[in-house]
Amino acid sequence: MQGDLFGAAVSLPPDGLPADAASSATPPSSAPRRPSRVRPAPVAQDWHALARRLPAPLRFGVSTWSYPGWDGLVWDGEYSPGVLSRHGLGAYHRHPLLRTVCVDRAFWRPLTAGQYAAYAGQVDDDFRFVVKCPALVTDAQVRGETGKALKPNPDFLDPRLAVEHFVRPASTGLGDRLGVLVFQLSPLPLGWLGRPAPLLDRLGLMLAAVRQALAGHPAVIVAVEVRDPELLGPALADTLKAHGATFCLGLHGKMPPIGAQLPMLRALWPGPLVCRWSLNRVFGAYGYADAQKKHAPFDTLVSEDPHTRAELARAIRGITGAGQPAYVTVSNDAEGCAPLSIQKLAQAVLL
């Protein structure tokens, strides 16, 4: 039964820059080091036995990796954020539990094929990237520096721009290391929310162009994340299914809890799991700044969310148990320390 498959207690409807991880037994000096190379934390090797027991199709990772507070967890000392953003990925990918990473940086500005290739050159053949489409394509509004909407975006969901500024450079630069392309639709104005049919038509045209551009990369997953609960339902699921895309679970205050989002994946079954755990719901829809303030320096679990963790672990078990891939990326804003959240998630998957 589908309910058993996903293991969630809900009824089925009919229908930055990346980061690194490592740790060290010796406390660093008070001044952050500025070496040309970042080394992984020796303690990270203690997680090899756990990693070997996890389902092979499962990939955990973080979103944005330049955190000095991960000293002793991912890094072997306290490096500056700048050093980590430039050199941390090579150490990060050597952590046995971290087999993917979300390149959030691409959301704010398109990256070139050369920039993607530089990322790919820092990891081994088994590593895969999750990459977010630039907001110039996925935001219906043109926004100012403060994030305030200034005017409608004439390029919203434009197929040509999605391919030229995102799909081609990412697939060319990352090659076989590209795992998931995420199209995160920013919160929509009422003009679009009140007209779901033309919105989904436009989304479908873009997804069709994306799939065509990925003809040489059949293993790449295309996922759509929304920030408006009103879009959850059969119409969105039908559009995604028609174009070989999946729904990305977006776990944060703007969307309902995970249990209310899982019916979207059931409607698309069989298919992969793509999940981005971005923000603990206790901080509300706009609580990123509060979460950052409470959780810094991101070296411990401050705001644990055992319910979300348990529900997500059940979904992972069901989906990977059926042989489907699962990409789960976690932010520090979820519980306070993404690497420790991932360790607890990994343990929960094996319960």
From TrEMBL:
Annotated Low complexity bias: 18-42
Annotated spans, Disordered: 1-42
InterPro entries xref list: DUF72, UPF0759_sf
Domain of life: Bacteria
A Pfam family matched in the record: DUF72
Protein name: DUF72 domain-containing protein
Native source species: Castellaniella denitrificans
